[in-house]
């Protein structure tokens, strides 16, 4: 089973990288000047109280010992207490992550279902109108800061034309659906609340579109380049020689090999989308991880920051693992070993 | 400088592409405006914490092209001064991150073995944290100032250069001229500095031009979250962030600085693409 073996190798590599990420973020957090215990308790706390907290947080131990305690906590699902919300960080992350996940999920969906067909069309109509439009979208998508897109969208669709809600995840009069996954669109579907679902989707359009734009153009350009590459290969000639239609040739023979490099690069670009999600959340008052992390930063809440970075990196590595699996499935050289 | 930088044919190729020329013109104009900001802006004293109650929140007109903000300051003046901050930041970040990235990439690619494993795994770790999130986290542990923002962006930037130069070095290492100079007894440092590095330069130069735009973009994102330059220093992204609270009535406060960021990033991007075609580098 070469595929299983390939997959296990990838999991090992990811675990190793994640371990590295935890060391890195831990070192950055401990390298800063200032006493985390003093920052947590504020300037009015007595020296004894600070000393007690230092003892409890293992701050008096050496850095490797501190890291050992931190890592043991992580493996037990304990990231410490948030100094900002005064709750366990894990509980905070569980509350805020679904909102971010939902946003990124829909943005990714838009990126793939608009970007890849746009790339296919560009390749089929090389250097014609579709191709040039796709080229402009790609260029503008890459060079425009995501928060500027978000503000432009808000100005045009919410204020000038008033067809979409301005911000938030739900309208003020709409009750959130019962908590199942924490994602409003899916929760409302599961609960059968179609009205809530529609409202959540309407609130989703602008943030997801603004977030998708930078990756969308990229996806279209990559698909185009790789499709053109496969069009020049003997196997597409062969398909044409067998009298398959142009559509069949493109979809069945040219697209599949073209998807392999495209998906790999998109997986790496996913990191950009995760970062940009923070900006979109700020603009649309989304109430996800960004809001939590930015507040944690202003409160100098080390545990909150470390937890957010770990969760985001884990998510990024997981998505890349899934993409690698899809690529392995598409690529017989990996699938069959 | 790489030799093909001076070939007339290459400059001809560059000048024939309207997009490359557009990029070059944008970059030149922005740099000119930023350098001569005190002479080209109508109200140079508005770059700081000036106050003009009589002209608060004026919409764009012939006196203030981009309108005025809540303190009566000319937005156009502040945008031009904002370019100063952006360009300075880009230059400092690249001059910190690129030498480190190039150096480590050359070492990892040339020596291979254990050095390569250690360096490239460290690079992998940095690249596994989304760039903006890493920069945010670093800023979270530091005070939000311009210098710290430069540091945070540099820390997340070097791994990209390292990976690029590493891959280049690995392929150049096997070229005949490198093998030949090894045979005649050239030292490692000679080969790295005089055989491999010059051949990496076209790519590094192209990458730096493209990166200049992206560094400005990432730094703008940090500022937008309130983790960068602090007032009263004029900063484009902070202006967008502050202005966005007054949408839609005072739209000019966020729209013009936003477009200003877009234009400078577009300029470096087009120029970088032009250089890539001209110097014929694969990235």
Write a brief structural summary.
The complex is a heterodimer of chains A (337) and B (283). Chain A is 77% helix and 0% strand. With 337 residues, chain A is mainly α.
Overview of the structural elements:
The complex is a heterodimer of chains A (337) and B (283). With 337 residues, chain A is an all-alpha fold. Chain A has a domain at 96-303: MetI-like (MetI-like fold, Orthogonal Bundle). Helices cover 77% and strands 0% of the residues of chain A. The model of chain A has no long low-confidence stretch (mean pLDDT 84). Chain B is mostly helical and 283 residues long. In chain B, 49% of the residues are buried. Chain B is elongated and about 75 Å long. Chain B has eleven helices and no strands. Chain B has one domain: MetI-like (MetI-like fold, Orthogonal Bundle), CATH 1.10.3720. Helices cover 72% and strands 0% of the residues of chain B. Classes of the chains: A mainly alpha (337), B mainly alpha (283).
Helix fraction of chain A, binned, reads: over 70%
Helix/strand class of chain B: mainly alpha
The pLDDT mean of chain B sits at: 86
Q: What percent of residues of chain A are in strands?
A: under 5%
The geometry of chain A reads as globular
What is the level-2 CATH architecture name of chain B?
Orthogonal Bundle
Oligomer: heterodimer
Instruction: Tell me the overall shape of chain B.
Output: elongated
How big is the Rg of chain B? 22 Å
CATH homologous superfamily (4th level) name of chain B: MetI-like
Ranges of chain B where pLDDT stays below 50 over 5 or more residues in a row are: none
Question: Percent of residues of chain B in helical segments?
Answer: over 70%
């Amino acid at each position: 089973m070469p595929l299983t073996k390939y997959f296990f190798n990838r999991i090992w590599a990811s675990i190793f990288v994640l371990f590295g990420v935890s060391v890195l973020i831990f070192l950055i957090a401990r390298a800063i000047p200032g006493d985390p215990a003093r920052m947590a308790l504020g300037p009015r706390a007595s020296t004894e109280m600070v000393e007690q907290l230092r003892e409890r947080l293992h701050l008096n131990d050496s850095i490797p010992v501190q890291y050992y305690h931190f890592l043991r906590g992580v493996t037990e699902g304990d990231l410490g207490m948030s100094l900002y919300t005064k709750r366990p960080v894990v509980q905070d992350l569980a509350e805020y992550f679904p909102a971010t996940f939902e946003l990124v999920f829909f943005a990714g969906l838009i990126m793939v279902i608009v970007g890849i067909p746009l790339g296919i069309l560009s390749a089929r109509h090389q250097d014609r109108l579709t191709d040039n439009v796709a080229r402009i979208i790609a260029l503008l998508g890459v060079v425009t800061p995501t928060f500027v897109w978000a503000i432009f969208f808000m100005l045009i669709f919410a204020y000038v034309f008033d067809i979409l809600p301005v911000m938030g995840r739900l309208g003020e009069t709409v009750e959130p659906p019962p908590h199942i996954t924490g994602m409003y669109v899916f929760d409302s579907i599961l609960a059968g609340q179609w009205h809530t679902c529609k409202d959540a989707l309407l609130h989703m359009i602008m943030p997801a579109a603004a977030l998708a734009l930078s990756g969308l153009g990229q996806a279209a350009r990559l698909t185009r380049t790789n499709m053109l590459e496969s069009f020049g290969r003997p196997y597409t000639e062969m398909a044409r020689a067998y009298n398959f239609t142009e559509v069949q040739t493109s979809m069945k023979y040219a697209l599949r090999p073209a998807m392999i490099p495209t998906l790999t690069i998109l997986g790496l670009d996913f990191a950009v989308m995760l970062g940009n999600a923070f900006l979109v959340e700020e603009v649309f008052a989304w109430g996800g991880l960004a809001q939590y992390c930015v507040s944690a930063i202003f409160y100098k809440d080390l545990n909150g920051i470390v937890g957010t970075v770990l969760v985001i990196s884990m998510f990024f590595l997981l998505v890349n693992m899934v993409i690698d699996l899809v690529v392995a499935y598409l690529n017989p050289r990996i699938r069959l070993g | 400088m790489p030799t093909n930088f001076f070939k007339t044919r290459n400059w001809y190729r560059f000048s024939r592409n309207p997009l490359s020329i557009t990029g070059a013109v944008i970059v030149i104009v922005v740099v000119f405006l930023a350098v001569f900001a005190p002479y080209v802006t109508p109200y140079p004293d508005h770059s700081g914490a000036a106050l003009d109650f009589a002209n608060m929140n004026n919409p764009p007109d012939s006196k203030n092209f981009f309108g005025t903000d809540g303190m009566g300051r000319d937005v156009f003046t502040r945008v031009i001064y904002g370019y100063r901050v952006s360009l300075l930041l880009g230059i400092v970040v690249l001059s910190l991150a690129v030498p480190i990235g190039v150096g480590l990439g050359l070492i990892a690619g040339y020596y291979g073995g254990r050095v390569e494993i250690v360096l490239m795994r460290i690079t992998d770790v940095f690249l596994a944290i989304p760039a903006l999130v890493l920069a945010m986290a670093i800023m979270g542990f530091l005070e939000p100032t311009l210098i710290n923002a430069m540091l945070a962006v540099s820390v997340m930037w070097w791994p990209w250069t390292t990976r690029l130069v590493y891959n280049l070095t690995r392929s150049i290492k096997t070229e005949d001229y490198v093998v030949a100079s090894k045979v005649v007894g050239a030292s490692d440092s000679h080969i790295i500095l005089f055989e491999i590095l010059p051949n990496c330069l076209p790519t590094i130069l192209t990458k730096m031009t493209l990166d200049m735009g992206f560094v400005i973009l990432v730094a703008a994102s940090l500022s937008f979250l309130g983790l960068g330059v602090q007032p009263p220093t004029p900063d484009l992204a902070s202006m967008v962030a502050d202005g966005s609270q007054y949408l839609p009535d005072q739209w000019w406060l966020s729209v013009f600085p936003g477009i200003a960021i877009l234009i400078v990033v577009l300029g470096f991007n087009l120029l970088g693409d032009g250089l890539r075609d001209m110097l014929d580098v694969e990235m």
